[in-house]
Write a structure and sequence with these properties.
With about 250 residues, the chain is mainly alpha-helical. The protein contains 13 helices and 2 strands; from the N terminus they run H-H-H-H-H-H-H-H-H-H-H-H-H-E-E. It has a two-stranded antiparallel sheet with strand order 1-2. It is elongated, with a radius of gyration of 22 Å.
């Protein structure tokens, strides 16, 4: 009897779980060695987890996700994905005969329902990225920096300054919206605060918008030049005063 190799077969879940882990690490901008050292595991365990050679323990998975700056609100969805993968692996190891029995069919149906539900929860808009795409003032950028720092744990400006490697007064000016950071130091700060790659990119894009660089390109649709930065997300305004929002979709 031929084993089902469709995406809902038990083999699908471990493969997908591994790919999703790898994507998270890529978004965090970490190598397998850097991640392994940060969470106290040999990098070979990270490699095996990302290759789908075997399912990592939940303890390793949680440490992996936390170091990659996955939000605490997302961990419950990841826990569900881990559980589904675990049950799928148990079913797979019992052999193809079990899959065709009533018990196996019911379990496969349950896994097929639970997996997309958890994936959908992870696909929800990232609140900080969404907020950064709407940033147009120094104050709003400062609030976003505070939110990024507070995500690690309740910390003071002094602690944030130590982590980021900048003077306390400088960081206070940035977070209070008194002045803008330069691009290079902003990247250093958000990296020290464990921003994901997408978050770090959005911080940089927000800074460029606020800095007032002119976009010389012409926007498709209305054929009017934009007076903001060339990265076309967030509030936009033409030289004639026409305004619209481009969310990147």
């Amino acid at each position: 009897m031929q084993v089902d190799t469709s995406q809902t077969a038990p083999e699908f879940y471990l493969r997908e779980f591994a790919e999703m882990l790898k994507q998270v690490r890529g978004d965090a901008g970490l190598t397998v060695r850097e991640l392994g050292a940060a969470i106290g595991h040999h990098h070979s365990r990270i490699v095996r987890a990302e290759q789908g050679a075997n399912q990592p323990t939940w303890e390793l998975t949680r440490a992996y996700l936390c170091r990659c700056s996955v939000r605490s609100q997302e961990l419950s969805a990841w826990s569900l994905l881990w559980d589904v993968t675990y049950e799928a692996e148990r079913l797979r190891k019992r052999g193809p005969d079990v899959m065709e029995k009533s018990e196996g069919v019911k379990l496969r149906q349950l896994l097929q329902e639970r997996w997309p539900a958890a994936v959908a929860r992870l696909a929800a808009p990232h609140p900080l990225v969404t907020k950064l795409r709407m940033v147009t003032t120094k104050r709003e950028l400062g609030i976003a920096l505070q939110e990024l720092g507070a995500r690690l744990e309740p910390v003071s400006i002094r602690q944030l300054a130590e982590w980021a490697g900048v003077p306390k007064t400088t960081l206070h000016d940035w977070t209070s919206g008194r002045r803008l950071p330069d691009s290079k130091r902003l990247v250093t700060v958000v990296s020290a605060l464990r921003a994901t790659k997408s978050e770090a990119d959005e911080f940089r894009y927000a800074l460029e918008r606020i800095s007032g660089k002119r976009c010389d390109g012409v926007h498709v649709g209305n054929r009017r030049p934009c007076v903001l930065w060339e990265y076309h997300r967030g509030p936009h305004r033409t030289s004639r005063g026409h305004e619209w929002l481009d969310d990147g979709d």
